[in-house]
Amino acid sequence: MSQRPLNVGLIGGGGGAFIVQPHQRAIHFDGTRRVVAAALHPDPKVALEEAANWDYPITGYTNYDEMIDVESKKPVGERVDYVVVVTPNHVHFDPSIKCVRAGIPVFCEKPLTLNLDEAKQLVEAVEEAKIPFGVAHTYLGHWTSRFARFIVTSGLLGDVRWADSRYLQGWLAGRTEDAGVAQAEWRVDPKKSGISCCGGDIGTHALMQLRYITGLDVTKVQANLVTFVEGRLLDDHFTTYCELSNGGKALVRASQIAIGHKNDLGIEINGTKGTLIWDQEFPEQVKILLPNQPDRTYFRGAIAANDGFLGDLPEELMAEPNIPAGHPEAFHDAYARLHRCFEQDVRAYNDGKPFSCDGSKYANVQDGLNGMQFIQAAVDSSANGSTWVEL
Ligand SMILES: NC(=O)C1=CN([C@@H]2O[C@H](COP(=O)(O)OP(=O)(O)OC[C@H]3O[C@@H](n4cnc5c(N)ncnc54)[C@H](OP(=O)(O)O)[C@@H]3O)[C@@H](O)[C@H]2O)C=CC1
Ligand SMILES: O=C1CO[C@H](CO)[C@@H](O)[C@@H]1O
């Protein structure tokens, strides 16, 4: 028998906001989730107006406190089953911890919080409430990220010696923040963005991609953060040299002044037996380079087990792609996969059953904390002449 669709609430997203749109499309992707309520804007009047003019009917709230208060008093089935936090970084912690304490699961944008202290408090609250909490590291949702993780963590490349994980953009190469671009204005403001602009905004994705695909942690960093554009208070170029938990080494780097680069998130991993290459802008492919063999390019949907490199493939992984190879999956599919997996945990939570929320399908609150520890360590290292700093 089909189940009722889950009810989702939005926090943030009015007035031409960016990432709310991919989220709300991904929420509706499978028909098993729908947006029903929202606190869309810091101005209560605008919040209600925006909700009234939303593309489909939703209940508007003047602010997220009201939404959490009213929704948490409703019975399961009528209340929001989870909320998505799509506000700037300084408005992640407060609504998230209030939802968690009110028993409402949260899917929060990255970086987890404005600072490390908030992140620690949030982890404690989530552990105490025993509630699903996801962090929107979008790119883990690509099927090819899962496939790459299987390849590396099952040892097909041998031991990881070196990884180069990058996220390069060019959109902050000039003073975009003076051109009326709201998304740039808050990202360069330490009160709204945190202690790092480039590192927090996109370096955290490069870190998460590295940790997810290799299953390894960064244990210490030497960092060099640069502000190229005059007048900025935060970095727009972010480079870290890292030690990994298996003794391997890595570069985790990001730039927002790399003119011409759009969303150039990618990773190369060199193991003792071979190399893996994954690029977000070509998200249907994984390249494998082996010694004395032709280079292999694997395409999602056209992958066969036991081909001379791959052995048996996990059933769960192979069952996942649902459109044939060559009909490309991309950004929205990745977001939808994260929401689909989060939905399973929320349904289990609603039914009082165990849920995993273990970081294997989407980033969880501990991953969010790890991102904040990484940023803090990188900022400290850079401020101290690029000395080693442990996470
Ligand atoms: N995972 C990913 O791929 C991506 C993640 N992000 C993350 O998503 C978050 C949002 O980024 P983005 O969409 O670019 O930002 P935007 O500035 O486009 O949108 C943020 C929205 O939140 C609103 N807002 C601010 N404070 C409140 C409040 N108290 N209550 C309700 N709404 C509020 C803003 O209103 P106002 O403008 O009036 O302040 C704005 O409408 C960031 O944390 C960012 O890092 C962003 C892009 C991609
Ligand atoms: O993935 C992303 C794409 O770019 C945005 C703007 O820099 C980031 O905030 C976001 O996390």
Automatic annotation (TrEMBL):
Annotated ranges, domain GFO/IDH/MocA-like oxidoreductase: 148-276
Keyword NADP: no
Gfo/Idh/MocA-like oxidoreductase N-terminal domain residues: 6-137
Keywords: Oxidoreductase
Xref: InterPro entries: Gfo/Idh/MocA-like_OxRdtase_N (IPR000683), Gfo/Idh/MocA_oxidoreduct (IPR051317), GFO_IDH_MocA-like_dom (IPR055170), NAD(P)-bd_dom_sf (IPR036291)
Top-level taxonomy: Bacteria, Pseudomonadati, Planctomycetota, Planctomycetia, Pirellulales
Gene for this chain: afr_3
Any Pfam family: GFO_IDH_MocA_C3
E.C. number: 1.1.1.292
Enzyme class per UniProt: oxidoreductase
SUPFAM superfamilies the record matches: Glyceraldehyde-3-phosphate dehydrogenase-like, C-terminal domain (SSF55347), NAD(P)-binding Rossmann-fold domains (SSF51735)
Molecular function in Gene Ontology: 1,5-anhydro-D-fructose reductase (1,5-anhydro-D-mannitol-forming) activity; nucleotide binding
Name this protein carries in UniProt: 1,5-anhydro-D-fructose reductase
